Amino acid sequence: MIPNQHNAGAGSHQPAVFRMAVLDTDLDHILPSSVLPPFWAKLVVGSVAIVCFARSYDGDFVFDDSEAIVNNKDLQAETPLGDLWHHDFWGSRLSSNTSHKSYRPLTVLTFRINYYLSGGFHPVGFHVVNILLHSGISVLMVDVFSVLFGGLQYTSKGRRLHLAPRASLLAALLFAVHPVHTECVAGVVGRADLLCALFFLLSFLGYCKAFRESNKEGAHSSTFWVLLSIFLGAVAMLCKEQGITVLGLNAVFDILVIGKFNVLEIVQKVLHKDKSLENLGMLRNGGLLFRMTLLTSGGAGMLYVRWRIMGTGPPAFTEVDNPASFADSMLVRAVNYNYYYSLNAWLLLCPWWLCFDWSMGCIPLIKSISDWRVIALAALWFCLIGLICQALCSEDGHKRRILTLGLGFLVIPFLPASNLFFRVGFVVAERVLYLPSVGYCVLLTFGFGALSKHTKKKKLIAAVVLGILFINTLRCVLRSGEWRSEEQLFRSALSVCPLNAKVHYNIGKNLADKGNQTAAIRYYREAVRLNPKYVHAMNNLGNILKERNELQEAEELLSLAVQIQPDFAAAWMNLGIVQNSLKRFEAAEQSYRTAIKHRRKYPDCYYNLGRLYADLNRHVDALNAWRNATVLKPEHSLAWNNMIILLDNTGNLAQAEAVGREALELIPNDHSLMFSLANVLGKSQKYKESEALFLKAIKANPNAASYHAVLYHRWGHLDLAKKHYEISLQLDPTASGTKENYGLLRRKLELMQKKAV
């Protein structure tokens, strides 16, 4: 018995079931009936999803993972859990002008749990969770696609019937193996998209459960399930902002599918001035209006709370992040936005050319209608308009439902990334296609069913489908391998976006981190050539040139960087370091002060300012600067060390000892602090305590040549001093001071031996 049926356009119960059975039978030559029971279908889909991305399980933290995870203090136990609700995805306060306003506290909470369970920043645990999440979502897709293809039909016991098992399985497999998902699964920060998708789909399925009951007047919702759906939508939004769009999808589902709103019929009645339009059932449906009121109120409430939490205005993006949004002409902006849409559509259709970043010259602006790329816009809208017309105006209710929901899933979750409502900080981002790909899989599966119905070459269609599944699986495996390390990821982008300055910048940064400065310089120069206003590339290149003592060019680059971006604090500090090395002390002090003006909490800049004052013998100013550095960053070992050494050199042994003890309380395992304090204690003739610290420092860093012999020579234990001098010279034979002291000690020992004789 099937008492409840919600199939758009179904004149009676039986024809709807018959049409679904026919559609599913068309796919029988692709999917054998032996794997169609729901349990086996889900097992196959989940397993395939794991196989596709399993290669990334032992990958490193790459690209944005560094900022969102490794450098994010919100993951560590010292940060109160309550701070997660006031910080953005990257750990900055939402009220800060530099915040990206990406509010995803639940995603950050899962990172924190990962960090706790893994015992630190061990990427394997983070990657495994992402892979399992994608597998679970793919399994859930079997149920979602069952609703999209088979409709909502229930048994007398309230169990939903799976009327399109083959179509559901095929679409779920297409989703599970889509290569565009690699960024979300293999990149740990993609968990935001995965969690958002999980709760998005649960919200949709929860909304569907609101239609399990019926009365004589037709379907009415269960308020509980509607409210639960809204709650799950809010949870999805707390994982990623895109989650709120599920409310719009639920509304479309309710109006066009459950309410059987037929646009073609309405248009015909309007044109013929049919009086029955006044008695349109949908408008008199109190249940529908109530559900729409709940959805609208829930969405408005979410947006209001989100706006209040943001604290300030929207995030400030630069032209390199999204050049089209900065174009003066509205026509140029519109044309380029639509071109970006066509590129996203192409990535769904042909996900072979994938790139971790599509900004900075990767996609040049379309500035003229004569640009051949406008063909892509025309093709996109030709297809979309055709699908929309079929979805809204087709007389086949089954086709209307599938196309409507397919387009709904394709378009609605993509809206926050469309630039229509606000400027986004990217040109194209593969991660935002995770949910829209659901709609693509619906449309593709429906297309295969339609082809099977109207052609006799069913084996050819089966071969094409299986070929797509195999090729996409292979591409997922290969792309997952590229996401295992930054070097592979960045170099893979060179063939896709050779004009992308950020690609060259990231390769250069990766090489510099590995110590290959010569190769890094080459890539940094190319990044600056491709984007002459790329201040971060200028800053990093200037740093390397500074280390290589090419100070003049370093100063020119850093000066240009701060000229382009006057509030670039790091470049101001590095410029000060270069000017200090060039003995241009006044200019260096001014650069440091400017850096601190733009970034008040800048401990490294205070440290370098202290070094400048020490070079100028402005000892009090130097001590104050280093003290500021340690206040802002209590674990700043270099600042503590310099304070101890300066106080020691100026004869303030008691103060030096006090500072040293204070430092070691904060950083108890720092061997350089142990050595500096041991020196001070030795000069204060506290030899036993000094010896203990020296030995502790040597144990912590046995290869530090300077740690040996100082104490014993001063203490008068000459034989021990001789032994440690020899160890020191073995570690560093070129140390002139050690050689000199060792020579003096040997002569003293020889004289003592002669006197003894």
Multimeric state of these chains?
single chain
Quantity of strands, as a count: 4
Strand order of the largest sheet: 1-2
- Category by helix and strand content: mainly alpha
Total number of helices: 33
Give average pLDDT, whole number. 85
Low-confidence stretches: 1-21, 214-221
Fraction of residues in helices?
Answer: 55-70%
Radius of gyration: 33 Å
Cα-to-Cα separation, first versus last residue: 118 Å
* Biggest beta sheet summary: 2 strands, antiparallel
Percentage of residues in DSSP E strands: under 5%
Shape: elongated
How do the helices and strands line up, and which of them pair or pack?
Elements: E1 4-6, H1 13-25, H2 38-53, H3 65-70, H4 105-118, H5 123-150, E2 152-154, H6 165-176, H7 182-186, H8 191-208, E3 214-215, E4 218-219, H9 223-239, H10 246-258, H11 263-271, H12 286-310, H13 330-349, H14 374-393, H15 397-411, H16 436-454, H17 458-482, H18 486-494, H19 501-513, H20 517-530, H21 535-547, H22 551-564, H23 569-581, H24 585-598, H25 603-615, H26 619-632, H27 637-649, H28 653-666, H29 671-683, H30 687-700, H31 710-715, H32 718-731, H33 736-756
Antiparallel strand pairs: 1-2, 3-4
